[in-house]
Design a protein that fits this description.
The chain has 494 residues and is an alpha+beta fold. It is built from 14 helices and 27 strands. The chain starts with 14 loop residues before the first helix and ends with a strand.
Amino acid sequence: MAKELKNLTKRAENYSQWYNELVVKADLAEQSAVRGCMVIKPYGYAIWEKMQQTLDRMFKTTGVQNAYFPLLIPKSFLCREAEHVEGFAKECAVVTHYRLKNDPDGKGVVVDPAARLEEELIVRPTSETIIWGTYKNWIHSWRDLPLLCNQWANVMRWEMRTRMFLRTAEFLWQEGHCAHATAEESEARTVQMINLYADFAEKYMAMPVIQGVKTESERFAGALNTYTIEAMMQDGKALQSGTSHNLGQNFAKAFDVTFVNKENKPELVWANSWGVSTRLMGALIMTHSDDNGLVLPPHLAPIQVVIVPIYKDAEGLKAISEKVLPLVNELQTKGISVKFDDADNKRPGFKFADYELKGVPVRLALGQRDLENGTVELMRRDTLEKETVAFEGIADHIARLLEDIQTNLFTKAKTFRDSMIFKVDTYEEFKEQIEKGGFILAHWDGTPETEEQIKAETKATIRCIPLEGGDETPGVDMISGKPSPRRVIFARSY
């Protein structure tokens, strides 16, 4: 290991510190000059781009189109939907003035009091209000529906306790906003998108998730229903990784968005919204990474294969390069991203440690002896196993290996997740288990009072009412003793 890696805190010692250090050391992100915000560095952004491009492609196969809406929202818009404004009011950043002027005392610039806005503007915490204010102008007839829009954007929610990727004041995300002629169509789209998120999480992130429905107190502000995918991190905490909301006609009512139906009668449209954010980066890190650094699933790794030459002089490098460059072309033809690191400013040992830290799935090392023997040293990042293999046919071997690594990471994460799901029947059992982490299947009487008591006393929340795989056997609430129709999933969360 390179010297820089020796200082990476072990997960077992302090999981939170390990995470914070890894984000910085792996060149993913760093703290910014603005409190609560982060700078996403090129390598971190390259991973986010892979996520973004994949999701964008998946959205478009369902008929969704991209658009862009303003960053600033008139305060009056936010106020139109009562639950919505109540849900976001405490997190809103507000623009009150539009001009600065030189400080008369010569101390830089000050806000010009004469430049106060007639109406304050809210930096978007989410875009339902500005989008539905726009949709009113776009939707007139049933022929204008369905309207399926998504935007890739930044949003701001004024968080006091932040952690890079997981919870920052400003973050990147996508938000889909769809308008439909019927309640059935809107519900079908809401379910379709949470299924899409689950497919992305499992097939690309190699991260198993549980799909479910949020309780009334946990659902999105202004929604009739919220669907969620919940993942488990290595420390036994849950991470909400994507949500899809059935908004009913709430926003259509608030913004008077109506259409003339096939019977030539006016009717309110039906709405849903759905989104994932750079929080997925945190999920990716905490699902797979180890004490040596990042572990990236091949389907999302910016560099899937790195080739490091080991040579003594320019002639040695030339000989290796002549051998390697056709392989680089062959891998690229197969759609595999590869880097031939022939830079002479770092020693091979440093490069090995650096690429291990950054989670590159496959590493090849090629020296003079390998040239003579027709071999190459190969290491897979997920298991850290090394082997010497024949150079001939190596491209096909790597292609198979990348898929094997992808499958192995998912299997490993799922095995761990499944081992951390526990059924409990008493509150004492619950309080004991929640300290150890994991998903707890327990009965709940359906009341917000019981839900709030558990949250206040244990810091655990109901993550979801599972759609599949939960226990639907009736029972009794572990606190109130009241009837419970089924078990729900509790956990502490990020």
